[in-house]
Input
Amino acid sequence: MNAQSNAGKALQFDAVIIGAGVIGCAIAFNLAKRGYRTLNVDKLPAAGYGSTSSSAAVIRTYYSTLDGSAMAYEGYHTWKSWPAYLESDDASGLARFIETGTLVMKTEANGYLAKVLKSADQLGISYEYWTADQIRDAMPGYDLQRFAPAKSMEDDAFGQPAGGEISGGVYFPCGGYVDDPQLSARNLKDAAEKHGATFMFKTAATEILVAENRVTGVKLENGQQISAPIVVNAGGPHSGKVNALLPVDPGMTIRTRALRQEVVQIPPPDDLGYSREGLIVSDNDIACYIKPGSGGQLMIGSENPACDAPQEVDPDDFSRDLSDRALTYAYRYSQRLPSLGVSQHPVGIADLYDATDDWLPIYDCTDVGGYYLAIGTSGNQFKNAPVAGQLMAELIGYCETGNAHDETPLQFQLPNIGYTINTATFSRKRPVNQDSSFSVLG
Output
């Protein structure tokens, strides 16, 4: 349903969701299924048009925290049964989950994955130890010399081996990527519309209306006012600007930032045998990850080491041109794969993460009645989007029926894996979580 045909009329909804990326659309779907009349407002022209469209869309089960791993494992099961989640009998026209498995290098910096594997054991996530020889068998041409810590190309020691060799890694068979992240958001939008959800594009919210410390709706840039007792900030990299539309403080101690990120795409060497079903690799030693890209390319991104300093930007004013950073990532990966041909003018994507201080998301209520947060999500929460939609719908129902979530947090049961999350983990008031990787790995 398109609300723009009703321009000029006073519109009333049960919930307004600001943002129509994969998170915002998942929230709409799960609220609409529960009978809420929802409206998503987005300044962009279509669902998933913003940072969702640039997501690497990796599906993996390893996070730095137990609850993060649980969310991701639940998400894996959801992506495996995407048509069923969407209540669709027809898989044509739906985004596809390509299951490749994921390999994580064991390094001193990641504690040889001890915390990750402890979580995997608690949650029943399968994994295999791989030796250096098994890694070379899976990734022909690999040089497993150590290079840590990761460096920028300006460093005189860039490309110099640090001594020793990566002794092995951990292979997680439950993992892969979604072939079209923007399409996945459109799938969620279409599924939500079947339950009566409404979407309004090319329209920005300019004010969140509050009376007696309770939201009453939003005002749009065309002057139209939308009445609703619930407003959800799912603004992705614009989440800080959305919060600024409130006339009062939502009561956050964790902040979000729009961080500029680059990924580079390079043709893989023939001897690697890499394809659409190629293995996804997380390599902490060179601080890069790789995955299959479009058109048979190899996609390379940063795992945010200290040498790749965060670039906080205005989400409405930043460069989408690749810089030397993209070239650095390519050359860092060429340390691992010497036969990789690196162009001086690589192709790729520059877009934004919406990252919190500890790189873990905020799924929470606020100090303002009816105002909810699903923010700090882009970068490492795409895989969790379907689960986040369920969590937010449960959280909103929990709070709107009189429960004091800040005092007695929602206990959210993950139906596929039988684990219950204490959602205080994702509180806006939490202390910075020192268990985090403080990177895109979450």
Summary: The longest strand covers residues 256-266. The chain has two domains: 3-55+181-255+359-426, 98-176+257-354. Residues 3-55+181-255+359-426 form a domain with the FAD/NAD(P)-binding domain fold (CATH 3.50.50.60).
